[in-house]
Design brief:
Layout lengths: L2 H13 L3 H15 L3 H7 L2 H10 L4 H7 L1 H20 L2 H6 L4 E7 L5 E7 L4 E6 L7 E5 L1 H8 L5 H6 L4 E3 L2 H17 L4
Parallel strand pairs: 1-4
Antiparallel strand pairs: 1-2, 2-3, 4-5
C-alpha cells in the first residue's frame, strides 16, 4: 500500500467519526494533507468533496476561535481543491471574464481568506489571509462563508437573503457568482 493510499484511508476513517471527535482529529489530519492535495484529489476525486462536506457539520466559528492555524490549513486545502477543479474545467475557465480579487472575512471568528480569478489564464487561486487590494469584500458568519466558498450556499440567494455583506460592484459580484456556481457544479456528488 502506498503512502497516498494510507493517507486516503486515514482521511476516510476520520471523516466517519462523530463531530466532536472529528474536531479533535481535524488539526492533525489537515497537517497530514498539506502538500498532498493534488495527488490525493487526482487519485480519489471524492476525497476533497468528502472533507469539505464533513467540515460543514462543524461549528466553524467555535472551531476557528480554538484552532486558528487549522482553519488556515482548511482554507488552503479548500482553495487548492478549487484551483484543481478550475484547471480541468473549460467552462469554469471561460466563465472568468475579468481579473477579480475577493476577500472573505468572518464576522464571528478569526477566519479570513482570499480568492483570485485570472481571466487571461482562466485560473482560480486563493488561500488563507486577506489580499491587499480586493475588488470585492465579503463578510459574514464563519459558517455562512464556509458554505459560500465550498459551493453549499448559492451566492445570489445568500446575498439576497442578507446572509452576508458585500462591498464592491454588483457586476463583479455577479461574475463571481457565475464562476462559483460553475465550480460548485464540478464538486463530485457523494
Amino acid at each position: 500500500m502506498t503512502d497516498t493510499e494510507k493517507l486516503a484511508e486515514e482521511v476516510a476513517r476520520v471523516l466517519e467519526l462523530p463531530t466532536d471527535e472529528l474536531t479533535e482529529e481535524l488539526p492533525e489530519l489537515l497537517a497530514d494533507l498539506e502538500g498532498e492535495v493534488e495527488v490525493l484529489a487526482l487519485e480519489n476525486p471524492l476525497l476533497l468533496s468528502d472533507v469539505i462536506d464533513r467540515v460543514g457539520d462543524v461549528d466553524v466559528a467555535e472551531f476557528a476561535a480554538e484552532n486558528p492555524e487549522t482553519v488556515d490549513q482548511f482554507q488552503e486545502l479548500q482553495w487548492q481543491g478549487v484551483e484543481l477543479l478550475a484547471q480541468f474545467s473549460p467552462d469554469v475557465q471561460q466563465s472568468i471574464e475579468e481579473d477579480t480579487t475577493v476577500n472573505f472575512e468572518a464576522t464571528d471568528a478569526p477566519m479570513a481568506s482570499h480568492l483570485e480569478l485570472d481571466a487571461d489564464a482562466g485560473a482560480v487561486s486563493g488561500g488563507a489571509g486577506l489580499a491587499e487590494t480586493p475588488d470585492l469584500e465579503i463578510r459574514g458568519p464563519a459558517n455562512t462563508l464556509t458554505a459560500l466558498t465550498t459551493g453549499q450556499l448559492d451566492p445570489v440567494s445568500g446575498y439576497d437573503d442578507g446572509q452576508f455583506e458585500m462591498d464592491g460592484s454588483e457586476a463583479t459580484g455577479d461574475q463571481l457568482a457565475t464562476t462559483m456556481g460553475k465550480l460548485a457544479e464540478k464538486l463530485p456528488d457523494n
